[in-house]
Write a structure and sequence with these properties.
Chain lengths: 289, 300
């Protein structure tokens, strides 16, 4: 009887593990296919199959994707677009996180009449489909002289990221005891002193969550990028899509795959280095969006 | 003497106003860039705007044109197909993996990392990868034929009947790990003592799952479905990268429809009207959700 139970549970364990490994294979295969395709020659791709091992490993496709692949009429590779994305992401993440931190601070420690309604109004901003603001924003950016520029994209990403960053910091500061702030106020500490001396030093984890969330969102954005940028000012996601869907000449699948991996590298790197915080942002942020 | 009190009063006033001053930019931005823009877009949808916005009232003309447009109904139908299958498969795979991962597994952390990494990718990257894997000539089809299935054909990507299902395949791959994370968190939150008590009473493991664990995960089901349907309605990048909405417009979704009419075909009015329809769809899902959330937080 006991033996039978043991056997049964051994069988159960075997089933559990094999299903889990199968799951891992399912998620990893596309990445594997991308990687080996990116180091094959075109001939190798034509004669081999999706998962066949490359005859010889070459990084030509990678260097082509970075420096010489044609995106529209411009044949300079992804390089320039990669830097576009960097110069868009860094300020947008920094500004939206900073403002979000202050908003969260006010909404928890300096609440005023109407602050809850303000927060609710802001939260709804997490949910709206951005299609509904695309046209007015296009007119506004044109009016401000920011159409088709990186500062324009930064502005858009800051505005529509604020709801999330505010939410992160608000939910974090809610759990900081109010007594701490009250005591500091009695001691004569002002608004900024309390923020920089008491709240900010303990905000490390939530800053990481907010930065990672915003970084991933903005780096991976395509909608705003494709609508509000043009020519050589486009972010990398738009450039990648143009590269892959350019229909002139021979289709270079190896270059496509190398380009896709290049576009994915920064966010993947962040994910593998700080996955814990990524997941926290995901579960906190995506409940609201 | 009096100036110094004035100064102090002035200083106090600024101190008292500071919190409001600090949130004011966000408040103004929210009013203008969210609510103002929604109204602006709503107004545009009631004008004759085509290539350029025009602001003379034209009634519901654009909505009539939208609803008479066959392409819009293809997009709407695709959203139902895509949304439905996307949600169902994400839930099945996500729950299944979460339950398995919850069985005190070795290397759980590594497996979780693998299951969730697609969430860090751009939909454009995911679309590019699956576009290659599903390539009618060189992709999966070639692989299966090499494995001995001589007559295996897989042309969904260029088949207008099936193209929308390739979007489902790629979307499920990207998002099911996330559903797993939601459910795993839910499973970990269940009180162990109830399960132990059931075990003592001799309930089998499947029975425990069926009558205790799954029912207590109802809130997780609820929020997972909300989030997934929200992702589905907003889906844009994946379609653009995978099929471009094609062949023809066979795999269009409302989001790609809106983009194409508003920004490439010079039909601002129809674009604005379709965006309003998307807003209504999201509102129909989110408003009841927010309402029940707020009610439960007030109670609790």
């Amino acid at each position: 009887m006991v033996e039978q139970n043991q056997q049964q549970s051994l069988l159960g364990r075997a089933f559990v593990y094999s299903a889990l490994v199968l799951g891992a294979v399912y998620f990893l295969i596309p990445l594997f296919v991308m990687l080996i395709t990116s180091v094959k020659t075109l001939d190798d791709i034509r004669t081999g199959s999706l998962i066949s091992w490359p005859d010889q490993i070459t990084f030509e496709a990678w260097s082509a994707a970075w420096t010489s692949a044609c995106i529209g009429v411009d044949c300079g590779g992804l390089k320039g677009y990669f830097w576009n994305s960097i110069s868009m992401v860094v300020p947008a993440v920094a500004i939206s996180t900073l403002i979000g931190a202050f908003n969260g601070y006010v909404l928890t420690k300096w609440r005023f009449r109407g602050s809850d309604i303000f927060f609710a109004m802001l939260l709804i901003g997490c949910f709206i489909p951005f299609q509904v603001v695309l046209l007015p924003m296009a007119r506004t950016l044109g009016f401000l002289g920011l159409a088709g520029t990186i500062p324009g994209l930064i502005l858009v990403h800051v505005i529509y990221g604020l709801a999330f960053t505010t939410l992160f910091f608000r939910n974090f500061y809610v759990s900081v005891p109010d007594e701490l702030v009250k005591a500091a106020r009695i001691d004569g500490a002002g608004f900024f002193t309390i923020f920089f001396r008491i709240l900010l030093p303990i905000s490390g984890p939530i800053i990481v969550v907010s930065v990672i969330w915003q970084f991933t969102q903005i780096w991976n954005d395509f909608l705003f990028g494709v609508v509000y940028s043009a020519g050589d000012k486009q972010p990398i996601t738009v450039a990648l899509n143009n590269l892959v869907n350019t229909s002139t000449g021979v289709k270079q699948y190896n270059v496509d795959m190398a380009a896709a991996i290049i576009a994915a590298l920064p966010t993947l790197l962040v994910y593998f280095v700080a996955g814990k915080y990524f997941v926290r942002g995901l579960t906190a942020g995506s409940v609201k969006g | 003497m009096s100036t110094s009190t004035d100064k102090r009063n002035w200083g106090d006033l600024v101190q008292a106003m500071l919190p409001k001053i600090v949130v004011a930019p966000t408040f103004v931005a929210t009013l203008i860039f969210i609510y103002g823009f929604i109204l602006w877009n709503a107004y545009l949808s009631f004008t004759k705007s085509r290539l350029l916005p025009r602001y003379d009232w034209a009634g519901t003309q654009q909505y009539e044109r939208l609803f008479a447009n066959e392409r819009w109904w293809v997009a709407a139908e695709n959203l139902v197909i895509f949304g439905g299958l996307f949600i169902i498969f994400c839930l099945i795979i996500g729950i299944f993996l979460a339950i398995l991962l919850d069985q005190r597994i070795r290397a759980e952390g590594a497996l979780r990392t693998i299951y969730l990494y697609p969430m860090a990718l751009s939909f454009i990257v995911t679309g590019t990868a699956w576009k290659w894997i599903l390539n009618p000539g060189l992709g999966l089809e070639r692989l299966m034929r090499e494995w001995g299935f001589e007559n295996f054909t897989f042309d969904w990507l260029v088949n207008s009947e099936m193209a929308i299902y390739t979007v489902v395949i790629a979307g499920v791959w990207q998002s099911s790990g996330f559903v797993m994370a939601l459910f795993l968190a839910g499973l970990r939150g269940i009180d162990d003592s109830i399960i132990k008590a059931a075990q003592v009473d001799g309930a089998s493991l499947p029975r425990i799952y069926r009558s205790i664990i799954i029912p207590s995960l109802r809130p997780v089901f609820f929020s997972a479905i909300i989030i997934l349907s929200h992702i589905a309605i907003k889906s844009f990048d994946l379609v653009m990268a995978l099929t471009g909405g094609g062949p023809g417009y066979a795999s269009d979704l409302p989001a790609t429809f809106m983009y194409s009419f508003a920004f490439t075909r010079g039909q601002l009015g129809i674009g604005a009207a379709s965006a309003m329809m998307m807003l209504c769809a999201v509102a129909a899902i989110i408003v009841p959700y927010l309402y029940s959330e707020l009610r439960s937080t007030r109670r609790g």
